[in-house]
Automatic annotation (TrEMBL):
Keywords from the named record: 4Fe-4S, Disulfide bond, DNA-binding, Iron, Iron-sulfur, Metal-binding, Transcription, Transcription regulation
Species: freshwater metagenome
A molecular function GO annotation: protein-disulfide reductase [NAD(P)H] activity
Protein name: Unannotated protein
Cofactor: [4Fe-4S] cluster
Biological process terms in GO annotation: cell redox homeostasis; negative regulation of DNA-templated transcription
4Fe-4S Wbl-type domain segment(s): 25-82
Family as reported in the entry's similarity comment: Belongs to the WhiB family.
Amino acid sequence: MSDQRAELAALVVSSEQLSWQERALCAQTDPEAFFPEKGGSTREAKRVCLSCEVRSECLEYALAHDERFGIWGGLSERERRRLKRRTA
C-alpha cells in the first residue's frame, strides 16, 4: 500500500509543478504559432510570450526537460541551446 501512496504523492507533486501551464497565455492561442514549420515565423509566438506571467517557469521547464521543438519561454530551440551553452 505504501508504494501506491508514493505514486499518488508523486502525481500530486507533478501536477502542482505544472500548474503554471494553466495560466500560460499560449494555452489560449493557436498552438501552431508555437510550433512553426521549418523556416516559419516565430514572431507571433514570441509576442505572446513577452506578456505571459509564467514565461520564466515555461523556459525553466523547457530547459530542464530538453524540449527540442517549439517556442518555450519566448525562446526558440536554437536560442535555448545557445542559452544552455552559455550557462554551462
